[in-house]
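Table S2 (text version). Query chain:
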Amino acid sequence: MSNSREGIGMTSARTRDRLVQRLKDQGICSCQVLDQIRNVPRHLFVDEALASRAYEDTALPIGFGQTISQPFIVARMTEALLAGFKGKSILEIGTGCGYQTAVLAPFIKKIYTVERIPELLKKTRKRLESLDIYNIQFRPGDGWEGWQKYSPYDGIIVTAAASMMPEKLLQQLAPNGRLIIPVGSKGQQELQMVINHHDRFEQVSLGPVSFVPLVKGR
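Corresponding structure-token output:
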């Protein structure tokens, strides 16, 4: 780690506290989620040139045409996924820089994560290992296909916007499991929570969002 990043890490406690307070003010209620947002060193998940902005509640570019989601959205999706969660495994679609993965890691026994950009996945794997996060299994691949091998999953979280609800992800969701996914086109995306009630899927809107698109294939 560079000296400038060490400095950010050492002096960011008040900045992190302010971020957590903003998330509380916006309606995030889970103390566990808020503590994890405070604890994860977000400045390590962005380019050094942007590290001073890491604890702003905003999305930032991470290269490859991708972004790190704003902390509020990460907290919102995490809180929705974990509400009443009693399972062991989740599937994450869109590993990205690994920030959402790191926020989820303490709460889940095993995370299976899929990223379509191998170069990004390689960097993220090293980053998470450097933070002693090892309960993750990585795979380069098409997020629309999910990861059939380890299904069904007790939860699925998607960090890019699908143009429509991916049927294969619904098929890989365990009974009583939750799928958290942004759906829609640019400017008209909605965060959806889908709960598998054995015989039917309940769909709940969690509000408007703005994500990069979930791209098919490599």
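Notes on Table S2: The chain has a mean pLDDT of 92. The CA atoms of residues 40 and 184 lie 29 Å apart.
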